């Protein structure tokens, strides 16, 4: 049937003896798909598997060590703790995929937040305008890093390290040493401190499942129209089923009253749907648009991408802009939780953001990883922070453990890369 | 002879004070394999990069199907149907076969990738080239052998119905069996009506597959001759500059 496809150029005779490759491997039957997946994992392309395993182990350990860990209140707390890190991790994925790094992402949001809280002090400008200013700061920082890296060719490590130091200076000037500004606008405070009503939690889950199902069905229909076979329905159903079950469990759990007898506290923190929307849009961009595909291509082989006609400097520049602006969004989640901004806002979080992405299975060498990996990795790190805190460990122990996890994850990444080079999967 | 699909007239290219191409002529015809040979530094790669639009020529004319064209960007070359398969393959290891074959010219439908269509076209291209060793179209290129990668790289040009395919040292890194396979594929490509330009150091391969042989020596085309009218010894002479040929129009 493949001979029926119209061709504009010279007609090429199709060798009837050669089997068509359509419908083999991951898009074949359930067994083919499983085999293809196993082959990939054995080849070192484990994706988030180690992180998911680690997450399960950590949860079991912390839950058995301290009964407070699995209480509704702590789980809700965990989500709001993790949100800035998750978002920062997702921001960094865009540049990590290129094989670049942005060490200034944390202080970028620090500066943006410093400006934001100062602008929105009583008598200042309306907060939506200040939000735009903060995002504008993200754009300017990202654009300048992108300019130096993509146009001039300065290593991103050096450029962003320079900005990491320089922007801290800017922050001292804006806020003043030792100064702290309180966050005033209620809508920004609400992101991390208010919850969805229980019905809205279910609505959110329903909408997410509907979108995922809709996209999958459109895909299937389109593939069928092109004459490409579809993967078995059972795989799609299984994926959606897992999301539905986990999601339902979580919504149910967080909809329980976790407040006191005097004051009810229930529902999903508002930040959760916001992060999920960012995740879904970002995943769409990375998986289904030229911009996303070219980011992967540049991370894999920049010269090949250039020869294929990709505007490498433009894509790189845009990735840095996306990273810095998403980092500013992470900043909003951060100050919403903390309630104020000072001169050190965002200074410490950036390496945790890199760690989140790498722990989740995003390669530091570029070209490999997904946004959801950063989410999983950030959750692991948040669980460590939260769990060690509950067990009464000091901040020092927490830093040491998080650092160790980062090195471990980077080691796994390097080994996986070596292995995939050696056996070629 | 019929009108050549690609004709270069007196193209020049310099890098600073170094003149790499000193007015080179080259023609390639549909259905024929044109070999481009020459020693290291003769300017073969520079000539090819100009045709691919990666590194534009400084001077001279490029005629495509008889009309003057400008080649300043890989997209312009691709639009004309000129495809280059590079020596270092220019594939992205972290992408799968389909993604690599469509890199830079993805099929879109309502703003997103039309993966099904790309997959179907990729399958057809590989079937055309009798590729039997690949397990899945969604395999990452990192998992392929040298010969398979070369096949994917060549299939990249077939998938868009290229009119001119330029192969830069397609057999340099391959074993004996794979070399035979790739040369077979090159022949099949030309027989299907594509103009193939092949660059090679290996004269055995050149004589096995080429119809016309062009020899580049220090930036000038010193010989243009049909393969059946010459011998490997003569060609070696042209390459090293110990023999010259004045009769240029074949």
TrEMBL record, chain A:
This is Xylose transport system permease protein XylH. Signal peptide: none annotated. The lineage of its organism: Bacteria, Bacillati, Actinomycetota, Actinomycetes, Micrococcales. Its main location: membrane. It is found in: Cell membrane. Keywords: Cell inner membrane, Cell membrane, Membrane, Sugar transport, Transmembrane, Transmembrane helix, Transport. PANTHER family: ABC TRANSPORTER PERMEASE PROTEIN YPHD-RELATED-RELATED, XYLOSE TRANSPORT SYSTEM PERMEASE PROTEIN XYLH. Part of the binding-protein-dependent transport system for D-xylose. Probably responsible for the translocation of the substrate across the membrane.
TrEMBL record, chain B:
Transmembrane segments: none annotated. It comes from Demequina litoralis. Keywords: ATP-binding, Nucleotide-binding. InterPro entries: AAA+_ATPase (IPR003593), ABC_carbohydrate_import_ATPase (IPR050107), ABC_transporter-like_ATP-bd (IPR003439), P-loop_NTPase (IPR027417). CDD domains: ABC_Carb_Monos_I. One of its GO terms (molecular function) is ATP binding. It comes from the Bacteria. Residues 6-243 form the ABC transporter domain. This is ATP-binding cassette domain-containing protein.
């Amino acid at each position: 049937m493949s001979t029926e496809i119209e061709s504009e150029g010279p007609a090429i005779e199709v060798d009837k003896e050669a089997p068509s490759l359509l419908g083999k491997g991951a898009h074949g039957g359930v067994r083919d798909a499983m085999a293809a997946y196993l082959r990939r994992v054995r080849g070192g392309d484990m994706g988030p598997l180690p992180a998911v395993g680690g997450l399960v182990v950590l949860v079991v350990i912390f839950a058995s060590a301290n009964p407070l860990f699995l209480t509704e209140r702590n789980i809700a707390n965990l989500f709001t703790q993790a949100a800035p890190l998750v978002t920062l991790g997702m921001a960094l994925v865009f540049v990590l995929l290129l094989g670049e790094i942005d060490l200034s992402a944390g202080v970028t949001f620090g500066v943006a937040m410093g400006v934001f809280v100062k602008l929105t002090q009583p008598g200042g400008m309306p907060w939506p305008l200040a939000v735009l200013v903060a995002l504008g700061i993200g754009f300017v920082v990202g654009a300048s890093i992108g300019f130096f890296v993509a146009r001039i060719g300065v290593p991103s490590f050096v450029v962003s390290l320079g900005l990491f130091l320089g922007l801290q200076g800017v922050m001292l000037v804006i806020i003043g040493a030792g100064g702290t500004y309180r966050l005033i606008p209620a809508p920004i405070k609400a992101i991390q401190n208010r919850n969805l009503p229980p019905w809205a939690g279910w609505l959110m889950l329903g909408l997410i499942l509907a979108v995922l199902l809709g996209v999958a069905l459109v895909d299937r229909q389109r593939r069928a129209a092109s004459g490409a076979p579809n993967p078995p329905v059972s795989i799609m159903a299984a994926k959606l089923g897992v999301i539905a079950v986990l999601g339902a469990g979580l919504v149910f759990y967080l909809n329980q009253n976790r407040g006191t007898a005097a004051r009810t506290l229930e529902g999903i923190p508002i930040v959760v749907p916001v992060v999920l929307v960012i995740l879904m849009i970002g995943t769409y961009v990375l998986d289904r648009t030229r911009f996303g595909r070219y980011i992967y291509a540049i991370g894999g082989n920049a010269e090949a991408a250039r020869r294929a006609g990709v505007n490498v400097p433009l894509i790189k520049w845009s990735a840095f802009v996306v990273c810095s602006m998403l980092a500013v969004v992470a900043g909003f989640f951060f100050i919403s939780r903390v309630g104020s901004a000072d001169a050190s806002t965002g200074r410490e979080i950036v390496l945790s953001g890199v760690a989140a992405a790498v722990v989740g299975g995003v390669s530091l060498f570029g070209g490999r990883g997904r946004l959801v990996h950063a989410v999983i990795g950030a959750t692991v790190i948040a669980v460590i922070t939260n769990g060690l805190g509950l067990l009464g460990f000091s901040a020092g122990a927490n830093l040491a453990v998080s650092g160790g996890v980062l090195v471990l994850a980077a080691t796994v990444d390097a080994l996986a890369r070596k292995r995939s080079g050696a056996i070629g999967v | 002879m019929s009108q050549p699909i690609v004709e270069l007239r007196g193209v020049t290219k310099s890098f600073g004070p170094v003149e790499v191409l000193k007015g080179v002529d080259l023609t390639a015809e549909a259905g024929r394999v044109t070999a481009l040979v020459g020693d290291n530094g003769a300017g073969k790669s520079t000539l090819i990069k100009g045709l691919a639009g990666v590194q534009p020529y400084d001077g001279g004319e490029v005629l495509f199907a008889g009309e003057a064209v400008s080649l300043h960007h890989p997209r312009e070359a691709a639009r004309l149907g000129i495809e280059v398969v590079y020596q270092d393959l220019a594939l992205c290891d972290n992408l799968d076969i389909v993604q690599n074959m469509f890199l830079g010219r993805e099929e879109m439908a309502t703003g997103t990738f039309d993966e099904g269509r790309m997959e179907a076209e990729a399958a057809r291209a590989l079937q055309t080239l009798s590729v039997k060793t690949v397990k899945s179209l969604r395999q990452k290129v990192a998992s392929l052998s040298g010969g398979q990668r070369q096949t994917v790289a060549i299939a990249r040009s077939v998938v868009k119905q290229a009119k001119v395919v330029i192969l830069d040292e397609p057999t340099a890194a391959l074993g004996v069996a794979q070399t035979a396979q790739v040369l077979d594929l090159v022949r099949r490509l030309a027989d299907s009506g594509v103009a193939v330009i092949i660059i090679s150091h290996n004269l055995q391969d050149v004589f096995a597959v080429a119809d016309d042989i062009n020899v580049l020596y220090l930036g000038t085309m010193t010989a243009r001759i049909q393969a059946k009218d010459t011998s490997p010894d003569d060609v070696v002479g042209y390459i090293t500059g110990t023999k010259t040929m004045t009769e240029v129009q074949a």
